[in-house]
Design brief:
Elements (H helix, E strand, L loop, with lengths): L2 E6 L6 H7 L1 E7 L2 H8 L6 E6 L5 E15 L2 E14 L5 E2 H7 L6 H4 L5 E3 L2 H9 L5
Parallel strand pairs: 1-3
Antiparallel strand pairs: 1-7, 2-5, 3-4, 4-5, 4-6
The chain binds a DNA duplex (12 and 12 nucleotides) through loops.
Length: 135
DNA sequence: GCCAACGTTGGC
DNA sequence: GCCAACGTTGGC
């Protein structure tokens, strides 16, 4: 079971949208590196949902409910089905908090600002567990 | 809204 | 295959 992080612009699709719908097909990822990450997603994996506008923060958790697959409508794009798991309590974990901790400089969230989907390093998961945000 | 940092495209 | 021009993302 692997943890990933996926960015979304909340003006387009927010954690509230996901909560309301219960599940969604995550699409529109065309960047080759992000597609590689998507390809690795398997049923049962977890996905931290990150809002990349406004507060820039990790706002909730989803679960991968089916292996990722090519987008039939776009040869360069991949899809994955996600199910809403939970919305984190506020205050959210902000990008600035993650940066300030200095412990996660190798995390692509910090190191590679424009990557929209990434794997989450184990120490960060440990940190989230200590905060009680994930089990 | 601005702009830095990147990614993509297309002419050569 | 290089690289200039252009487009996009995302933090601020």
């Amino acid at each position: 079971m692997t943890y990933f992080l996926a960015k979304t612009d909340p003006d387009t699709y927010s954690i509230e949208n996901l909560k309301r719908e219960g599940a969604t097909t995550w699409n529109g990822v065309r960047n080759p590196q992000a597609v590689q990450v998507l390809k690795a997603m398997k049923k049962g994996d977890r996905v931290l949902i990150y809002h990349s506008q406004g507060q820039s923060a990790i706002v909730g958790l989803a679960r991968v409910i089916g292996n990722s697959r090519p987008d039939p409508a776009d040869a360069k794009s991949w899809l994955v089905d996600l199910k809403f798991q939970k919305k984190f309590p506020e205050p959210y974990i902000t990008l600035s908090e993650v940066k300030q901790s200095k412990k996660f400089d190798a995390f692509a969230l910090i190191k590679q600002g424009r990557l929209s989907i990434m794997e989450v390093p184990a120490p960060f998961i440990t940190w989230l567990k200590q905060k009680g945000l994930v089990i």
